[in-house]
Structure formats: structure tokens, C-alpha cells
Structure to design on (231 residues):
């Protein structure tokens, strides 16, 4: 079955960077985009960006451009999200998600990675 | 601009049915959407996809108490035979060519 397993919680200081991983299994890694989404405490979902694991092509939400990088290791079937210049407003749970076959609905979710930004 | 609008809250009684609404912005009434459930202290769960013709496809393991429908620019999620565990936040989601993840603000469902 499709599984997305993410790395553990991180605590970072303002101005630092964080890198979250997402290991995929149960399907051909290169066949589906990986998207990243976050949910801050008490807030809704915010889309960060997408990556095509086969080509490495990426696209980012406007508010994150210049501050986020989505990469992958095809040998390890793992996607990565690195967010830099962290502020307290980046405190959130970060999820990797995979769309379904044929339609870009987020049918598969990772378990989430909590990132806390605090001095 | 593609925007999804949801009412912030809804409520219904245990064992009853509830219909949640997600409204697509003007010019986007043909778009399909997905419904996701976020229970407290749990990860999000994909429930189903609803197309503009009202057809819906449930995700893996989703019970048939959850169904979808459509009317114009509105997409609906109906939950029947409500259980206490259905108390959660429900989000609709769609996509566009450039912005591949568009979410509604979510509806908090209270089961009375």
C-alpha cells in the first residue's frame, strides 16, 4: 500500500533552516508528484509547493518562493523540503502528500512533521 | 483567482445526517474537488472526490456513510448516521495549473 513516512519533530531558532524528509513506498516513486502542505496551530492548510520526482521540476506558492527548496533522492525514494529564514510564523505541522491517479486530489498523506521555531 | 469558500462551522445530532458545503469561485464551476477530514490530534484523511456532474469516488477504506454531490459551483459532503468520531474539521481542496493545492478555510463539525 502507498505510504509516506516523514522525519521527526524539529526545534529551530529564528533565522535557521529546517529540512524535512518524506520516504515513499508502495508505488513507483517517479510516477507521482510530491506536494508539501503545512498547518499552523489553529489554522487551515497552506500549500507550499510541488515536485516531480522523475524530472526534479518544482513549483512553489508565491509566498514561499526564494525561501523553500524541494528536492529528492530517487535512489532512496525520498523527497525533501528545506525552508530557510525561519520565523515563529513557520511553526506548524508539515505534511508531504501525493495526488491520486488521474486527478490532483491529495489522496495520500504523510503523518506530519512538527517544526517549532522558538528562541 | 481560484478560491474555495466554506462556512466555518456546522452541527448535527448523533445518528443524524449533515451536508457540508464548499463553493468554487466564479468561473471555476467545472472543477472537481476533494474532501479531507482532520480529527483532533490525528493526521488528515482523504475522504472522497466530487466532480461537477455530482459523481464521487471514495478513498481507500472510507465508509459509504460519506458521500459527495454537486450543484453548480457548490460541492457537498454528506455524512449520514453521524458518530461522535465524525466530530472534526473538514476541508475541501482543488487544484489549478500553477497552484496545485487550493484549500477552503475548513468547516468545524460539532456532533451534538
Amino acid at each position: 500500500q502507498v505510504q509516506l513516512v516523514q522525519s521527526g519533530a524539529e526545534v529551530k531558532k529564528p533565522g535557521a533552516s529546517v529540512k524535512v524528509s518524506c520516504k515513499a513506498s508502495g508505488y513507483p516513486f517517479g510516477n507521482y508528484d510530491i506536494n508539501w502542505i503545512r498547518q499552523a496551530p489553529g489554522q487551515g492548510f497552506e500549500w507550499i509547493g510541488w515536485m516531480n520526482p522523475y524530472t526534479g521540476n518544482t513549483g512553489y506558492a508565491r509566498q514561499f518562493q526564494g525561501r523553500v527548496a524541494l528536492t529528492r533522492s530517487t535512489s532512496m525514494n525520498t523527497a525533501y523540503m528545506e525552508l530557510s529564514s525561519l520565523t515563529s510564523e513557520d511553526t506548524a505541522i508539515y505534511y508531504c502528500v501525493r495526488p491520486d491517479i488521474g486527478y490532483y486530489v491529495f489522496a495520500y498523506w504523510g503523518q506530519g512533521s512538527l517544526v517549532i521555531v522558538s528562541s | 483567482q481560484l478560491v474555495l469558500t466554506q462556512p466555518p462551522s456546522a452541527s448535527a445530532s448523533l445518528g443524524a445526517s449533515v451536508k457540508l458545503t464548499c463553493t468554487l469561485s466564479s468561473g471555476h464551476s467545472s472543477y472537481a474537488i476533494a474532501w479531507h477530514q482532520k480529527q483532533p490530534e490525528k493526521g488528515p484523511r482523504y475522504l472522497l472526490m466530487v466532480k461537477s456532474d455530482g459523481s464521487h469516488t471514495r478513498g481507500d477504506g472510507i465508509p459509504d456513510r460519506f458521500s459527495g454531490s454537486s450543484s453548480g459551483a457548490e460541492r457537498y459532503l454528506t455524512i449520514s448516521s453521524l458518530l461522535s468520531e465524525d466530530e472534526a474539521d473538514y476541508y475541501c481542496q482543488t487544484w489549478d495549473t500553477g497552484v496545485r493545492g487550493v484549500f477552503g478555510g475548513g468547516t468545524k463539525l460539532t456532533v451534538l
